[in-house]
Every structure is written in C-alpha cells, then in structure tokens.
Amino acid sequence: MAQRWVTALYGVVSILLGIVVQTRPEPAARILLLLFALHLLVTGVVRIVQAAASRGVPRGARVLTAVVGVVWVAASIVLLLAPITTLTVLAVTLGAVLVAQGALGLVEAVRDRTVWPAVANVVTLAAGIAVLVWPGRSFTVLLWVLGVWMVVYGTLTLIGALFPNLFGSTAPSGAAAGGPSEAAARGRRG
After folding, report:
1. pTM of the entire structure?
2. Among 31, 44, 52, 146, whose Cα sits 20 to 30 Å from the Cα of 23?
3. ∠ CA 138-153-74 to the nearest 5 degrees?
4. Contact of 61 with 178, CB cutoff 8 Å
5. How far apart are CA 51 and CA 61, in angstroms?
6. CA atoms within 13 A on the CB side of 183
7. Distances (CA, A) of 156 to 15, 89, 119, 166
8. Structural domains counted in the chain
C-alpha cells in the first residue's frame, strides 16, 4: 500500500512539473535545470532503494533497476555540480537518460506482458530519441518534449497506482517509483 502511495505522489509531481515547464518555458529555463536534476536524483534514489528492497523479483531485474537508478543519480550530480548552459549537452544528457529508462522499462513490460508499462516506456523511449535527434533545435522544443513526457508518464504512473489491477500492473514498469515490476513478483509467488 505504501508503495502505491509513493507511486501516486511521484505521478502527481511529474504531472505538475510537466505543466509548469509547458506553460512557463522562459522563466522555467533556469529553474528547469535544478528541478530536473532534483527529479533525477529522487528518481535514482527511489530506484536503488526499490531494487534493494524488492522481494520475489529475479536478481537480474533488481540489478538492472539499481543500474538505472545509479545512472539517474549520476546524471543528477553532473547537472547539479556543473550547471550546463549548452542546450546540446543538456539535451544529450536528458536524451540518454530517457532512452536508457525507456528501453529498460519496455523490456520489463514486454517480459511481464503489461500494457500500461509498455505504453509509458514507449513514450519515454520516443521522447529520448527525439531529444537526441534534435538536440540543438531550440530550448523551447526541449522544454516542450520534457513537459509532455513528464505529464504523460506521470499520468500513466498515477493511473497505475490508483488502479493497481488495471491491465495487471501497479505502475509503469521502470517507473521511478515502480521499481521492478510487481507482476513479475506475483508471477513467481503465485
């Protein structure tokens, strides 16, 4: 129950930050770097803790979850310690994190045969690829892609937390607060 509450809160925070980024792109530009770095840090720490605390989930899934968590934390440290003013570097960092998160989550969702996690991680993967393909276009486009991703991914995470039996999943596989999929754990216990 506590994990669903944390997952729902993560979804709401992602939605709110996504809306702010989309509606106030100019003032949000400076704050975005700090907010995004903090988001990465929290996401990474939650993934690492969930990997360590997961029971009944295969060791390989827990290790992959922890590795993604470490990548999120490392990216947040880079953004916090060396404020990046070059859009290309920020875009490549963001794109790489989104591609890694989306790919891992999609693999987990396909393995677990869950719909919401697959949709959420296809969106994440597509957002990462789009940012990597067009890193220098404009900061507004980057903010828009990030904002859309945060709103969509946060909404899908919130739906998964509020309706845990919908399509057999509690949250998108690979969601920051979702950790290794519970569907995999249920399948091994039941």
Report:
1. 0.44
2. 44
3. 70
4. no
5. 8
6. 23
7. 10, 28, 8, 11
8. 1
